[in-house]
Amino acid sequence: MTDLLSRRVPDLAALELLLAVARLGSLGRAARELGITQPAASARIRATERLLGVALVERSPRGSRLTDAGVLVTDWARRVVEAAEAFDAGVQALRGRRDSRLRVAASMTVAEYLLPGWLIALRTERPGTAVSLRAGNSAAVAGHVLAGEADLGFVEGLEVPPGLDGAVVAHDRLVVVTAPTHPWARRRTPLDPAELAATPLVLREPGSGTRQVLDAALAPHGGLTAPPLLELASTTAVKAAVVSGAGPSVLSELAVADELASHRATEIPLRSLPLRRALRAVWPTGHYPTGPARDLLGLTRGREG
Length: 305
Known about the structure:
Elements (H helix, E strand, L loop, with lengths): L1 H7 L3 H13 L2 H8 L3 H15 L4 E4 L2 E4 L1 H27 L7 E6 H6 L1 H11 L5 E6 L1 H9 L5 E4 L8 E15 L14 H5 L4 E3 L4 H10 L11 E3 L2 H9 L5 E4 H9 L4 E3 L7 E9 L6 H12 L3
Parallel strand pairs: 3-4, 3-5, 7-8
Antiparallel strand pairs: 1-2, 5-11, 6-9, 6-10, 6-11
Helix pairs in contact: 2-3, 2-5, 3-4, 5-7, 7-13
């Protein structure tokens, strides 16, 4: 599949050029902005059109305009480039460069699905800020912040961990998910909390925010009465197990959005179980973030939704 995609999908340089033509209305201006010659830009557009099998740009003495197909392709290209920018921001933070001036620790859900966008915003508004990232479960994040190993942390449990202050930066909901082939995917009535508690599940490990929320929600119903089918230390591993048919799980709605949209997983309606949670930034009690940590906190809170 990867080789097939590489033969059918343009590279990022071609997509960035197409976006620049759409924004500037001129192939020449787009070429100058990207630091390439106009003949090179024209050749890149023609190569992209041959690869895709559709005309993308109409050229005239007054400039360049997108064809109808070009408008659609540009919209899709924008999403790919934005995803690549998020990927780059996350990887740059993971490198842990020695000149880092902002040390961030984040729970897995936040690190995978929210932090890259926040880091892009930070790079745009404060381009001189270098960031390093530690990712782990919420308990580990709290430990890093308390030990002075991180300037700012992001956790996903029910409460602010002891010794820390915090602020809500986003909200999330946990959902019950299975493979489409699981018997639950064909049921016509919502799942009862007691039935969920009595079913062996694929779960995150104790200490993760997801596990904390699930345990607390099921406590009034007797807690998890069945031993876990699997306990895994990453959301990605849990999703892979669910999609492969290993068993049902309870995961962040953020984490399984793609799997649900592509029908690789199915959400199971649940009766009367509170599974919403707040995602929080945390810092040592009495020491409000300063400098780059304060900058990042301001950006995340400005994007709460």
